[in-house]
Amino acid sequence: MPKYIALMKLTQEGIKDIKNAPQRIEQAVAGMGALGGKLVDFYMVMGEYDYVAVAEFPNDEAGMTFLLALGSLGNVRTTTLRAFDREQLVELVKKVP
User: Fold this and answer.
1) How far is residue 19's CA from residue 14's CA, in Å, rounded to a whole number?
2) Residue 73 and residue 95: Cα distance in Å, rounded?
3) Strands, E, within the chain: which ranges?
4) Which of 74, 72, 62 is nearest to 33 (CA)?
5) pLDDT tens for residues 5-44?
6) CA distance 9 to 49
7) Angle at Cα 27 formed by Cα 23 and Cα 33, nearest 5°?
8) CA–CA dist 29, 53 (Å, integer)
9) What does the pLDDT look like over 67-87, one tens digit per residue?
10) Domains recognised in the chain with CATH numbers
């Protein structure tokens, strides 16, 4: 399944309600599952971003649907990257003319 890395920043609303963040994360995991996705890893980080998540979705459309739903809640803003693992890198490089 394609992997995606989401870099997230808390909004003012999200930080104001930080005590409910663990429940919101669990709800997000359930939402991913409903779209055929799964959370691979999740971190709270220091620096420019507040959270980093690695997720798998069956396709870009399912991933985008999830991100739209997540963003509509107003607690985080995301920057998302489509990720390719080492094995995929090897296969892609073989195709380079």
Assistant:
1) 9
2) 41
3) 3-10, 38-44, 51-56, 76-83
4) 62
5) 999 999 999 999 999 999 999 999 999 999 999 999 999 9
6) 5
7) 145
8) 11
9) 999 999 999 999 999 999 999
10) 3-94 (3.30.70.100)
pTM of the model: 0.90
Write out the two tokens for 50: 């507040």
What are the Cα distances from residue 27, in Å, to 7, 30, 39, 75, 83?
A: 18, 5, 12, 13, 23
Which token pair is 72?
């509509």
Torsion angle, alpha carbons of 58, 59, 64, 69, to 10: -20
In the numeric block, the tokens 């959370």 are attached to 39
